[in-house]
Structure formats: structure tokens, C-alpha cells
Amino acid sequence: EEEGQIKAVALLYCGMNPATLLCFQNKGSEYASTLIQEIRHLLPGKFYAHLGEGLTGIFGSPNILEHYGLNYKMVCCRKIDDPGDKNIKRLNRDDLHEIEAFYPAAYPHNWFDPRMLESGKYFGYIVNNKLVGAAGIHVYSATYRVAALGNIATLPEFRNRGIGYRLTAALCHDLQKDVDTIGLNVRSGNRQAIHLYESLGFRIEGTYEESLLQNVPQ
């Protein structure tokens, strides 16, 4: 904080193990760098990190256990219509068993928190009574009118049929009744997903690096 204004924020999300540190910055800003250095002694010995470009280097190369590359932060910039697809249904706790079988096949190594189903903001695509696609959220707050999409996937044998597009459109249309800002994260090399989101009206607003770090003083 400087002169009564918040200049940088770091969030340590402890809902998973290891925890995940989030901290971003505008180009040319040193506030985030200073903040991380000042809170480093409070951070755990090992954690995932989503950090603005250049911030990962604060921890030193020996502490970068894995570097997963550059990601884009995208934000929806227009209203999205309901695709009106009768194969799309809202998912809930009753669908948990099928969802937990779906993600290892469609999106290995993703992180799915069953509690998110309680938001009512998960949608599935059903073909012959089988879940072949899903789209949901990582963050949702009607109070603060913000949401972040996540866990958007389609079974390999059902890809390139527009299912991901229609699922994401249905989800965003539903979210826009309650929120003003919809964002998402996507790997910079995932051109197919980026094209899908751009076609829905999302645009790139920022970048960050994803890593697995250890916090050992140099």
C-alpha cells in the first residue's frame, strides 16, 4: 500500500496441496516484486505459483522445480447468447461420480473441486446418456459479480464438433445473469482453445508464468 492506495496484492490459495501463490503486475511496475520479497518468509517451503512475467526469478533458478510456461489471462468483452442446445444440462452433486470419471479421460491432471458444483455453474454435454463434455468455474461470486471459468473439456473422440464452444457459451450466458466480469486462464500455446475463447468475445488482458517452486533462501 502506498499513500492509502493498494498497489499490489498477493494471494496464497490453500485449498490444494501444495498451495498456490498468485501475484501479477503491470509492465514496468515494481510493486509486486517488492511485495513478494517482503512476504517471502511467510510462504510455505513448496508451492505452485502463478506470477507475472519476471516475478518467478525472485526465488532464484535453483528454486524453480518445474516451469510450466506462459499463460494468458482472458476476459469476456461482450454479451453471449444461449446456444439453445438440448444436449446441455446443468450438473450437480448427483452427477459427481460421472464427472470424476470424465475428467481423467478428457482433461488429465486438471484440478476439480467437487464443492464448485454447489455454485450451480457447471454444465455438461450429454450424448446417448453419456457425459462427453463439461464446462465450469474455478471462481464464482454473485456478491462481487465476478467469475473465472475452468475445467472446460471434451472427450477426445467428441472433439472438433463445436461442443466446447456451445458449452462455454451456455455457461457464460448463465453467468452473465449474475456477474459483470468473466475471466479465464489458458496456456499461451493452446491455440485451439484461445481461438474458441476469442470467437466468444474474450480477449487477452495479461500474462503470467506457472511454476512449481521451493522456498529455500539463496
Question: What does the model show?
Answer:
- This protein has helices at residues 31-39, 96-106, 163-175, 191-200; strands at 10-13, 20-23, 46-51, 64-76, 88-90, 123-127, 130-141, 146-154, 181-187, 202-214.
- It is α+β, with helices and mostly antiparallel strands and 218 residues long.
- It has a ten-stranded mixed sheet.
- Strand 6 and strand 7 (130-141) form a beta hairpin.
- The longest helix is centred in the C-terminal third of the chain and has 13 residues, at 163-175.
- The chain is globular.
End-to-end distance: 27 Å
**Structural class label:** alpha+beta
Please mark out the parts with pLDDT under 50 across 5 or more consecutive residues, or reply none: none
Please give the largest β-sheet: 10 strands, mixed
Task: Identify the overall geometry.
Answer: globular
Strand content: 25-35%
